[in-house]
Structure formats: C-alpha cells, structure tokens
TrEMBL record:
Transmembrane parts of this sequence: 20-47, 59-78, 98-119
Domain of life: Bacteria
Organism: Labilibaculum antarcticum
Keywords tagged on the record: Membrane, Transmembrane, Transmembrane helix
Protein name, entry field: Uncharacterized protein
The keyword Membrane is annotated on this UniProt entry: yes
Length: 120
C-alpha cells in the first residue's frame, strides 16, 4: 500500500509526461487537477491524524499540490517570456528548442525531485 502513495504523489509528473496539455489551461482540467491536489493534501493530514497507514508514506500525498504550483509558476513565466506553450520533450526524439528542454529539466528537478525530497 505504501508504494501506491508514492505513485499517487507523482501524479503531476505522470500528467507532465503523458498529458501535458491538461496542465496548461485555466479550464475544467485546471480546476479538476487543483481540486484533486488539494483533496490529496488534506487527505494526508486526515489519515495521519487518524493514524491510518504509514505516516512516512502518507506525506507523499502532499507532493501533487507542490508540483502543480511549481509547474504553474514555470508555465506562466515561460508563457510570458516566449508567448507560447512549452512542448513536451519526454517522448520526442527529434530536436526541440532549448527553451523547451530547459523547461522540462527545471520541472523535473524542482517540480518532481524537490517535493520528493521535501516530504521524505
């Protein structure tokens, strides 16, 4: 069960890899992901308070909100500077602009690895 908390905690990273378009807009997908992240954040505190599950693993449920906020900040900065959406460079094996590659690397370092080590 503990590994499921880690997989759920990495849900924003999964979206970044496979459905990055869902993270871009301010529409229904934005609200759904935001509500999902907030619910997981609150659920982690609730489950720790009730003493249900391993507290060291339950904190991984807090990762999606941190990753989502970091992604939105990076996305809004990228959009403001380059006037376009970043392209996903994870599954593309052709040359992409260096801005997209840097965006992806920064998100993986600060949006996935940093929250992962913060909750440990």
């Amino acid at each position: 069960m503990d590994y499921i908390f880690i997989l759920v905690g990495l849900s924003i990273a999964w979206l970044f890899m496979y459905k990055i378009k869902w993270l871009f807009g301010f529409g229904v997908s934005f609200l759904a992901i935001l509500i999902y992240s907030i619910l997981l954040f609150g659920l982690s505190f609730l489950l720790i308070g009730v003493n249900c599950g391993n507290p060291k693993m339950l904190v991984f449920l807090r990762m999606p909100i941190v990753s989502f906020v970091i992604f939105r900040v990076f996305y809004l900065l990228f959009k403001k500077i380059y006037k376009r959406d970043p392209e996903n460079t994870a599954w593309v094996f052709e040359k992409r602009s260096i801005q997209d590659v840097i965006f992806s690397i920064l998100f993986w370092l600060l949006g996935v690895a940093l929250p992962f080590f913060l909750v440990i």
